[in-house]
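User: I've been going back and forth on whether these two constructs are worth ordering. Before I decide, could you fold them both?

Assistant: Sure. I'll take them in the order you sent them. The first construct and its structure tokens:
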Amino acid sequence: MAAIKVYGSVISTATQRVFATLYEKELEFEVVAVNLGAGEHKKQPFLALNPFGQVPALEQGDLKLFESRAITQYIAHEYADKGTNLICAGKQMAILSVWVEVEAHQFDPVTSKLNWELIFKPMFGMTTDTAVVEENEAELAKILDVYEARLSVSKYLACGCFTLADLHHLPNIATLSRTQCKKLFDARPHVSAWVADITARPAWAKVVAMQTNH
């Protein structure tokens, strides 16, 4: 197989999602750094990989992919026999798909807004909008109530084991855990146990180390 190249930034939560999947699969890959501060993601040659101008992108021979969750699903299926099995078969796969969608359409929009306000705005010298934070904290609390109910009957979101459904949450959870929002996870015992479990995975530790070395 041709070498895997990941174009992105170690501080990008979407790029981290891909890194975590590759490490779980114990695959070799090359990181091609895209300087977001300099706007490289909005210019050629990156736009040839993703015309929407967002990281990450994956290149493997003549295969070019963008959208982090599409990339993780390609890796999980293409390398099903390598490393951690991140998918499952039959009806359980349908449940996995449900929670992959929940993460993308319910969890991610709210947590991404909170990360932007609480982590990235201060990093870029901008002012946090407390009204936006309060509104999205209230929304996240409702979402986490649904997760608490699910995780009270299942240790993981789908398939009875760690899968893409859990992995996709890691970047935003880890980033938010450095903020006041940590209390929302801690207040829900099953959510808290799940967060402790998935953030302790060796593959995720490697992603964290990439940021530390940045």
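The second construct, handled the same way:
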Amino acid sequence: MMEERMGNCWSYTKDQFDNLEKHTQSGIEFVERYSKFVKERSEIEISYAKQIRNLSKKYQPKKNSREEEENKYTSCRAFLSTLNELNDYAGQHEVIAENLTSQIITELSRYLTELKAERKSHFHDGRKAQQQIESSWKLLEASKRRFERDCKEADRAQQYFERMDADINVTKADVEKVCPVIALLLTPNQSQASAL
């Protein structure tokens, strides 16, 4: 309703809060989705490291004399070396999970909190400005109507004054009594015209 009265120029300059709100919300949702992905990946890394470590422990040779003799053979030592490497591999996955949690997830959570707060603040300020614009337009519209009404009134008074001024039966004092403001406004003009 207000936009119709303001004309086409308003449609080009109007702030696009709805589009901006959708765009920023989709950005926040993306960061939340990515954060969730990193959390799940960290959990998978921890679970994978635990499973690998359990597998390594399960096949570690027990400490008895018979198996110690068997471990002297090259194939047994290679298998034992593979189990140790597997244990180290599990440790690397634990480090990856810790880094994901401590560096990426923490930073993303902080960043997401800042984004939401900043977005809320900006939209609050924007809506406040939008309300001020709306109230200014309403005031402008009211002033326009009042100006148009006053112009019509002034035109009617001018016409009435001219009719009375043109009437030969009405004295100048009667005209000034009926229309004192217009008489005052026109008197200097008439005196200037007679001086010319």
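Notes on the second construct follow. The two ends are 53 Å apart (CA to CA). The domain at 25-186 is CATH 1.20.1270.60 (Substrate Binding Domain Of Dnak; Chain:A; Domain 2).
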